[in-house]
Amino acid sequence: MHLSMWTYPWDIQDQGLDAIAAEFRNRAGLDTISMATSYHAGRFLQPRSPQQKAYFPEDGTVYFRPDESLWQDKTIQPLMARNVTERGDMLEALTREREATGLAVSCWTVCLHNSRLGMLHPDHVTRNAFGNPNYYNLCPSSPAARAYAVTLVRDITTNYRPDMVELESPNFMGFAHEYHHEKDGVGLNAEDDFLLSLCFCDHCTARAAKAGVPAESARRSVARFIAELCERDIPERQFPDFPATGIDAFLDHPDLHAYLAWRSEPVTSLIGEIKAAADPASRIVLIDLKDGWLGGVDLTAVGRLCDGAILCCYDMTPDAIGDVIRTGRAAIGPEKFLGVGLRVFYPEVGEASVLAARAKAAADAGADGVNFYNYGLIPAKRLDWVRAAVDGIS
């Protein structure tokens, strides 16, 4: 059983590597540490830190030392966080000391969610049906964005040799909850958000057209739906089978349905290219959600191309978690790694027994591992909740 916890490099710096390793192994019962190696901006309450109770990481930076020889001809370049220069390369420390700490090392790697790079490279971000840019999401159809994600993982795996790399956001992202201070007075429902997230940038439309997909007709349909939702006094559902039936909710609009079916191609092929370029010593897995198809993820195809997936099941009942894991296992097959992501936030997890029941449901349904979220964001006493969950499945 793979047992890990998502962790930021500044958590390791604040606590010290020896201390955090002891907490992972002895208090929480974990055998792996999943450290953020590329990340976006935010404001984090850090209860564990002795000094940094509120922390604002740099936007869109990497927490390792990039190999310049791999990046010389790349349009989109990584920026090493000042944290690495000022406080040390924690990925290097983890991989160097993994035998001493007893912890396997996994790299939690944000791929295309990067507002800093999106602002620098607006020709390579997703764009809605009106051509408006989503600066937070580099587009998986863009050759430059694809090269960035592929080289990022190649760099990490060849120069640091982690045991695993966890790919976050190698796909299309949603419209809501992706940027700071978002304003929505309309009251968007789930289908509205999905329609606004659909990308029709030049890279997508050219790639779709090459595959014989009617991208322009699909774009016109989506633009009409968006214009109509903006005219209503209150939101109304237009697609009653959404999201339960997936893209088939749009079967009455054949060109749009064809475009949605094509939309998984750039995501799937990007994950395949990432895996092909990575050092084979590192397993490559996808971090995804229950309805990954919303972002263009075809989990069955992903299972053929990489080493597995971690399905985040935050704020879900044990029965629902079991269903997600069984569905995920059927998609990726019996031989690939399948983990579950569980959050340890209050009040969504009110006591240790709630977390334990969720972990047990995942394990009973066939999960090979659990990633807990997140070491630096929860009080130390909740590590005992993690230990209770681990003891229930080990």
Keywords:
2 domains; alpha/beta; two-stranded antiparallel ribbon; plasmid; 16% strand; 17 helices; eight-stranded parallel beta barrel
Can you summarize the main beta sheet? Answer: 8 strands, parallel, barrel
Mean pLDDT: 97
Q: What is the helix/strand order? A: EHHEEEEHHHHEHEEHEHHHHHEHEHEHEH
Q: Output the CATH homologous superfamily of the largest domain.
A: Glycosidases
Shape: globular
Q: Give the CATH level 1 class of the largest domain.
A: Alpha Beta
Total discrete domains? 2
Count of helical stretches:
17
Strand content: 15-25%
What is the count of β-strands?
A: 13
CATH architecture assignment name of the largest domain: Alpha-Beta Barrel
Distance between the termini: 7 Å
Helix content: 40-55%
The CATH topology of the largest domain turns out to be TIM Barrel
- Identify the strand order in the major beta sheet: 1-2-6-9-10-11-12-13
Rounded radius of gyration (Å): 21 Å
Structure description:
The chain is of the alpha/beta class. It has 2 domains: 2-172 and 268-391, TIM Barrel (Alpha-Beta Barrel); 178-262, no CATH class. It has 17 helices and 13 strands. The chain has helices at residues 9-15, 17-27, 68-71, 82-87, 90-96, 98-101, 115-120, 143-160, 190-197, 202-210, 215-231, 254-262, 264-277, 299-305, 318-332, 352-364, 383-391; strands spanning 2-7, 32-39, 44-45, 54-55, 61-62, 104-110, 125-127, 133-138, 164-168, 283-288, 308-312, 337-343, 369-373. It has an 8-stranded parallel barrel, surrounded by 7 helices. Strands 3-4 form a two-stranded antiparallel sheet. The longest helix is centred in the middle third of the chain and has 18 residues, at 143-160. The chain starts with a strand and ends with a helix.
